[in-house]
């Protein structure tokens, strides 16, 4: 295909006269047979010409004198006039600061300084030739220009030649310069050079493979065979004849040896030999650089994979540790279940005996009072103690003061009301009619009640411990929470003897639930409060407040202890967490974990709030009690 058989491309020259006109004239002289040339002083004018012409721009020449190159090219690109044109910048300046964008975008193909006649035209012609080849047209032969380079330099031709061809050319040139050469056959494992030792010549590898290794800090670096190159020892000539690598034959090889003197003579007699050696060296160094980049990439990828594997192993290790802790926990709970079952079995008989004694004691007391002159009064007193309901501290104080005022007997008032009786009229009648007998009957009835409650509580506590892993099924529909609170306080009376207990009981509806489990919740909370108060050194005070809500009831137990550390507070409900003995540690810290589970199984919520001087544990329970699926 000749130049006339296709739509002629367009070469544009942008710049201010007179320099731009001179460049345009030079370009026209060399491309007139193959392309048309258009000129304009600025980007807008050139864009108008290009868009009207409707031809593809092959080369855009910007004459930089008086123009900002970046701004000019960007304006052309924005107007859609540049397309895929190759950019040539012609300048007279020794340096530029307006080429940042064209270089960054890869648009600049040549920067030419005017001064040498014909150089700008020759460069444009060369780029036009490349453009025509890329677009499937016959290449343009560069016209001869005074002082211009030849069409193809020996170096460019050599760089583009096949490596095997270069080796053959090198062998032929050496034989022409030095005469026939003897070839050396070497077995695998032969070292051609040794790292750090003198090199007396070079080896031209005609057949076989050679690998390069370098020892550093006790480890060996092995280069890829493809990066060795056919000439071994040439690099050492730049290092005062010290070998940088150890070159070892990895197969049987055929080589030709050239001493330094022979190489020097051959290069003087055949200058083209230097071009071939330079080309081979450039290829070898390029291959080594690419191999180095590949190794760096592989190293980075291995580091990334190792880090990902480390993360996976760390995750797996955490999972294994959690599984181990879970297995330990399950084993501990299994052991605890077996122990509780054994304890329950062993306690059944003695507790049954205690319960029987309590029942007999009540019956025997009633028999003793039979025939007493005040039998009716004494039985009324015993019935009041046995069937007492929970009362608040303030109500108990009012009753004590009223009885003391009516009887003028503080000791009687304190002891009689302390048994749980708050009926002032009954207390006055008892003091008036049978003071000693009434006190004895009240204390005996209270003792019998406490024995009965204590024996029941022992069985309930053991059963509650077992129910942590096997929930009990018994559901009571009408629990009086105040009774469960009072019973718990009575059973803990020994631990609470130095603590002021303040009850503020509201009017609560009865709820459905499991009494023993709820009593266990109050026990755990009160024991924790007592222990906290014991470490504070201040006068202990525990407040128990109950209040009705819309469809629920709320029990709030607070103490005036030192409070719980904010960092520890979120963890107090963890099954194996405890702060006993003043340090945070893992142990059999089941109390609060069991308490929260019991409350949640009742459909409620157990929350904790704490600050220095006050800690509150609040249980909110629905009146309806546990959901059916929890039963």
Task: Give a verbal description of the structure.
The protein is of the alpha+beta class and 631 residues long. The protein is 49% helix and 18% strand. Strands 2-1-3-4-5 form a five-stranded parallel beta sheet, with helices on both faces. The chain has a five-stranded mixed beta sheet with strand order 15-17-18-22-21. A four-stranded antiparallel beta sheet has the order 6-13-8-11. Helix 10 (375-386) packs parallel to helix 13. The two termini are 95 Å apart. 31% of the residues are buried. The model is unreliable at 1-5, 144-151, 467-472 and 581-589 (pLDDT under 50).
Write the layout of secondary structure elements.
Layout: E1 10-14, H1 19-31, E2 36-40, H2 43-53, E3 57-63, H3 69-78, E4 86-91, H4 100-104, E5 108-113, H5 119-134, H6 154-159, H7 163-178, E6 184-186, E7 191-193, E8 201-207, E9 210-216, E10 219-222, E11 231-232, E12 246-249, E13 253-259, H8 260-269, H9 272-369, H10 375-386, H11 393-407, H12 410-418, H13 424-467, E14 476-479, H14 481-491, E15 499-504, E16 511-513, H15 515-536, E17 540-548, E18 552-559, E19 577-578, E20 585-586, H16 591-601, E21 605-611, E22 614-622
Parallel strand pairs: 1-2, 1-3, 3-4, 4-5, 15-17
Antiparallel strand pairs: 6-13, 7-12, 8-11, 8-13, 9-10, 9-12, 14-16, 17-18, 18-22, 19-20, 21-22
């Amino acid at each position: 295909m000749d130049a006339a058989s296709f739509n002629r491309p367009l070469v544009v020259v942008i710049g201010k006269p007179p320099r731009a006109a001179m460049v345009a004239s030079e370009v026209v002289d060399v491309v007139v047979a193959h392309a048309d040339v258009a000129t304009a002083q600025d980007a807008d004018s050139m864009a108008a010409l290009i868009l009207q012409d409707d031809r593809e721009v092959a080369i855009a020449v910007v004459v930089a004198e008086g123009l900002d190159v970046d701004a000019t090219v960007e304006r052309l690109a924005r107007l859609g006039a540049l397309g895929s044109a190759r950019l040539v910048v012609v300048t007279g300046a020794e340096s530029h600061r307006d080429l940042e964008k064209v270089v960054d975008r890869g648009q600049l193909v040549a920067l030419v300084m005017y001064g040498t006649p014909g150089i700008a035209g020759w460069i444009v012609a060369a780029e036009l030739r490349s453009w025509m080849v890329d677009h499937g047209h016959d290449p343009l032969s560069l016209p001869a220009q005074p002082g211009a380079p030849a069409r193809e330099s020996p170096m460019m031709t050599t760089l583009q030649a096949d490596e095997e061809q270069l080796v053959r050319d090198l062998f032929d040139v050496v034989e022409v310069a030095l005469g026939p050469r003897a070839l050396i056959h070497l077995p695998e494992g032969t070292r051609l050079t040794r790292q750090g030792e003198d090199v007396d010549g070079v080896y031209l590898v005609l057949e076989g493979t050679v690998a390069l290794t370098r020892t550093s800090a006790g480890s060996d670096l092995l280069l890829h065979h493809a990066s060795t190159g056919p000439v071994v020892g040439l690099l050492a000539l730049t290092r005062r004849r010290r070998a940088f690598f150890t070159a070892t034959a990895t197969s049987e090889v055929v080589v030709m040896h050239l001493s330094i003197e022979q190489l020097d003579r051959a290069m003087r007699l055949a200058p083209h030999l230097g071009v071939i050696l330079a080309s081979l060296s450039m290829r070898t160094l390029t291959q080594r650089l690419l191999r180095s980049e590949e190794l760096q990439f592989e190293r980075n990828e291995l580091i990334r994979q190792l880090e990902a594997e480390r993360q996976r192993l760390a995750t797996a290790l955490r999972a294994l540790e959690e599984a181990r802790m879970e297995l330990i926990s399950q084993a501990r709970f299994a052991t605890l279940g077996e122990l509780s079952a054994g304890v329950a079995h062993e306690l059944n008989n003695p507790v049954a005996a205690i319960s029987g004694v309590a029942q007999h004691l009540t019956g025997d007391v009633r028999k003793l009072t039979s025939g007493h002159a005040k039998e009716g009064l004494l039985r009324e007193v015993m019935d009041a103690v046995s069937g007492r309901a929970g009362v608040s501290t303030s109500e108990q104080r009012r009753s004590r003061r009223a009885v003391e005022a009516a009887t003028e007997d503080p000791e009687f008032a304190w002891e009689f009301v302390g048994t749980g009786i708050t009926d002032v009229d009954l207390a006055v009648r008892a003091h008036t009619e049978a003071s000693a007998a009434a006190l004895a009957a009240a204390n005996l009835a209270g003792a019998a009640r406490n024995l009965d409650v204590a024996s029941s509580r022992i069985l309930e506590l053991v059963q509650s411990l077992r129910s942590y892993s096997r929930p009990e099924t018994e559901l009571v529909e009408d629990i009086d929470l105040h009774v469960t609170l009072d019973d718990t306080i009575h059973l803990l009376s020994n631990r609470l003897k130095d603590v002021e207990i303040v009850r503020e009981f509201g009017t609560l509806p009865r709820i459905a639930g499991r009494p023993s489990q709820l009593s266990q919740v109050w026990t755990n909370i009160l024991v924790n409060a007592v222990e906290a108060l014991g470490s504070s050194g201040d006068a202990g005070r525990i407040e128990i407040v109950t209040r009705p809500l819309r469809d629920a009831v709320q029990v709030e137990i607070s103490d005036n202890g030192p409070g719980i550390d904010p960092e520890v507070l979120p963890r107090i409900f963890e099954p194996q967490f405890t702060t006993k003995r003043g340090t945070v540690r893992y142990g059999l810290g089941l109390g609060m974990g069991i308490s929260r589970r019991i409350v949640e199984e009742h459909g409620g919520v157990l929350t904790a709030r704490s600050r220095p001087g006050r800690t509150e544990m609040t249980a909110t329970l629905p009146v309806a009690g546990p959901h059916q699926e929890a039963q």
